[in-house]
Amino acid sequence: MTDLNISARVGAVVIGRNEGERLILCLTSLGKQLNKIVYVDSGSTDNSLENAAMMDIEVINLNLNQPFTAARARNEGFRHLIQVFPEVEYVQFVDGDCEVVSTWFNESIVFIDSNQDYAAICGRRRERYPEQSIYNLMCDVEWNTPIGDAKACGGDAMFRVKAFNQVEGYRNDLIAGEEPELCLRLRASGWKIRRLDTEMTMHDAAITKFSQWWKRNVRSGYAFAEGAYLHGAAPDKHWVKESRRAMIWGLLIPILAILLGMLSWLLAVITMLVYPLQITRLTVRNLKLTIKHPLKIAFFNVLSKFAEMYGQLNYYYLRFFRKTPKLIEYK
Question: What is the pTM of this model?
Answer without folding.
Answer: 0.94
